[in-house]
Amino acid sequence: MNNDNIKNDNIISLSELKKGEKARIVRVASRGVIRKRITEMGITSGTEVQVKGFAPFGDPMVLGVMGYRLGLRKSEAADIFVEVI
User: Fold this and answer.
1) What is the full DSSP assignment across 6-41?
2) Is residue 43 helix, strand or coil?
3) Assigned CATH for 11-84
4) What CA–CA distance (Å, rounded) separates 45 from 58?
5) Are the C-beta atoms of 49 and 14 separated by less than 8 Å?
6) Residue 50 above 80 pLDDT?
7) Which residues are in coiled coils (predicted)?
8) From CA 4, how far away is CA 2, in angstroms rounded?
9) pLDDT tops 60 at residue 38
């Protein structure tokens, strides 16, 4: 993954958010089948998400996206960049 285009200090990986934090998707850096699956679930640039919680051992994370809850592995969330709002 190449982070050269991610220069803003306010932009972090989705996997770094804590429970209750809200963010706006800036970039999905995943590739192939994973990228397709993530975008089909509504994780696209400009979409707002909120961390609702985490599974008992911290993975996966539970996100609120467009009125529904989505479980996403932290390894998948690491390739999604967000701006905290």
Assistant:
1) ---TTEEEGGG--TT-EEEEEEE---HHHHHHHHHT
2) coil
3) 2.30.30.90
4) 25
5) yes
6) yes
7) none
8) 6
9) yes
